[in-house]
UniProtKB/TrEMBL annotation:
Record lineage: Bacteria, Pseudomonadati, Bacteroidota, Flavobacteriia, Flavobacteriales
PANTHER family, A to Z: NADH-QUINONE OXIDOREDUCTASE SUBUNIT G, RESPIRATORY NITRATE REDUCTASE
GO cellular component annotations of the record: membrane
Domain 2Fe-2S ferredoxin-type: 1-88
Protein name as it appears in the record: NADH-quinone oxidoreductase subunit G
SMART domains reported in the protein's UniProt record: NADH-G_4Fe-4S_3 (SM00929)
Family the UniProt entry places it in: Belongs to the complex I 75 kDa subunit family.
Keywords: 2Fe-2S, 4Fe-4S, Iron, Iron-sulfur, Membrane, Metal-binding, NAD, Translocase
């Protein structure tokens, strides 16, 4: 069946959603997505960041759809016409959603490890207001320690449910859901119940914001100071294909490889992610490429790996250690009884 998105026609299989059709076209007709994740089943429909205008329902029933539609949950009909970037109404709706998402999200990008690779930061850049209109107090949660590998910042969570689906589908543990409702809705208890699984680190990669971050990387560097390289190793638990984030000759963190929609290409195990931080553990393939506009490109690393040597000044490392001590939550005890 045929669908036209922002004037571009594409033929797709029945059952394709508008978001998937837009991704097939690519470029700036792709709506933003904060909760849909193509690598996980049953995602989408929670954030409303992907709203679009359906100006023609189908060939059989050409009436426009009166409300803005979540493209990740709207199936394509033959002859449908959709506006993503060419609709003022859709743009306004996405702006409103962005404002809502930011109501409770702390503006702590300067100290957040996700800064530079945060989907909410990107969404705000394109659809956000210059100033906040929200004067009330933001929703806050008590810090909770969910283990030695993953840092949870519930204040930053946008309740996208991606980690819940990862816990269920990748870690195979069904102890999850949202606890409480409204302003008190939180996801932490359920995440901590699945945190011991050997694939649990993938929750860090799927989290669109800085609510789940890598404790072994915490406050080590801003992502744009790292040089990401694709690498692989023989692993019997996962594909072993990763991105190494290097500072000089030091591997500061290991993540799964992410595609142009910021989704992981293949999930990786905790052993690859957390236990192999020596260059000799990996076969390095070459620099990982990012979108032209990505802040990660600030750090030019187009030269071959064997020639890239950056000496890290002792003073910089000492400064980082002091920062880490000051802002880290090490003093928050890890309550195993809560699991
Ligand atoms: S912790 Fe992250 S992945 Fe999980 S629901 Fe919150 S924002 Fe989504
Ligand atoms: S991506 Fe469609 S509702 Fe979240």
């Amino acid at each position: 069946m045929k669908v036209t998105i922002d004037g571009i026609e594409i033929e797709v299989e029945p059952g394709t959603t508008v978001l998937q059709a837009a991704r097939m076209i690519g470029g700036d007709v792709v709506p933003p997505a904060m909760c849909y994740y193509s690598k996980l089943k049953d995602t989408g429909g929670n954030c409303r960041a992907c709203l679009v205008e359906v100006s023609k329902g189908s060939e059989a029933d050409p009436r426009p759809m009166p409300k803005m539609m979540p493209s990740c949950k709207t199936g394509v009909m033959d002859g449908m016409e959709v506006k993503v970037k060419t609709s003022e109404r859709a743009l306004d709706a996405r702006k409103a959603v962005t404002e809502f998402l930011l109501i409770n999200h702390p503006l702590d990008c300067p100290v957040c490890d996700q800064a530079g690779e945060c989907d909410l930061q990107n969404l705000s850049f394109k659809h956000g207001l210059e100033k906040t209109r929200f004067k009330e107090e933001k929703r806050t949660f008590e810090p909770e320690n969910i283990g030695d590998k993953i840092q949870l910042h519930m204040n930053r969570c946008i309740l996208c449910y991606r980690c819940v689906h990862t816990a269920e589908q990748v870690c195979g543990s069904r102890n999850h859901g949202v606890l409480n409702r409204g302003d008190h809705a939180q996801i932490s208890t359920y995440v901590s119940a699945a945190i011991d699984h050997e694939m649990s680190g993938n929750m860090i990669d799927v989290c669109p914001v800085g609510a789940l971050t890598d404790k072994t990387f915490r406050f080590k560097s801003r992502v744009w100071f790292n040089k990401p390289f694709d690498a692989h190793r023989n692993c019997d638990k996962c594909c072993g294909k990763t991105t190494l984030w290097m500072f000089g000759n030091e591997i500061q963190r290991v993540t799964a490889r992410k595609d142009e929609f910021h989704e992981v290409e293949e999930f990786i195990c905790n052993e690859c992610r957390f236990d192999h931080k020596e260059v000799s553990d990996w076969v390095i393939e070459g620099p990982r490429k990012f979108e032209k506009w990505s802040v990660i490109n600030q750090s030019n690393y187009t030269r071959k790996m064997d020639k890239v040597v950056i000496d890290t000044e002792k003073q910089i490392l000492e400064g980082r250690d002091q920062d880490r001590k000051k802002i880290s939550m090490k003093e928050v005890p890890y309550k195993t009884s809560e699991k």
